[in-house]
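Dear support,

Our group has been running a series of protein-ligand predictions, and this particular one with inosinic acid is the one our PI (initials K.S.) wants archived with full inputs and outputs. We had some confusion internally about which version of the output was final, so please treat the block below as the authoritative record. The input we submitted was:
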Amino acid sequence: MSEHLSLLIHHSDIEQTVSRIAAQISRDYEGRHLLVVGILKGAFIFMADLVRQITIPIEVDFVTVSSYGSGTSSSRRIRLLQDMTVPVRDKDVLIVEDIVDSGYTLSYVMQHATDVGALSVAVCALADKPSRRETPVDVSYLGFTVPDKFIVGYGLDFDNRFRYLPDIYALENRDE
Ligand code: IMP
Ligand code: MG
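Confirmed final output from the archive:
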């Protein structure tokens, strides 16, 4: 198997984008009760950078989800492995995700936040692959629209590898 990484988004562009999004969030949620919920593990680096640039008081929590079944089929099921531990009722929830692909993960987590009593639910995603969408997701805060390539780095993994890289790369020839 031969694989190599080609640089897609440099860390300095990520930094600028994270600052822009954090400023928008700080403006939009001024005076409200914001709970920021990261989806593990992919969002952990984005989340850590994002919350440190938000200038209003917030609460922070995480969920862990896993998908099973065939990767891209519409029968794909999502499982909640670790729920939120901070009370959600009557709070404005902002879900932070690394990348939106089919949309099933975010649809599931948004519905879950609604089910447990969130006042509002919105989505912040570092990256979006719109060409892969199978179920609609309204992304309020988006970092980068990316092509239909498998991307790694800055929290995103392939088989738990590459998460630690500060930049974002396209993983080429991963099936050869
Ligand atoms: P969705 O449920 O199909 O939208 O999938 C979203 C999840 O799949 C993300 O949270 C990622 O963990 C994973 N994923 C989708 N595309 C990529 C990618 O290009 N690189 C790394 N992970 C990805
Ligand atoms: Mg993920």
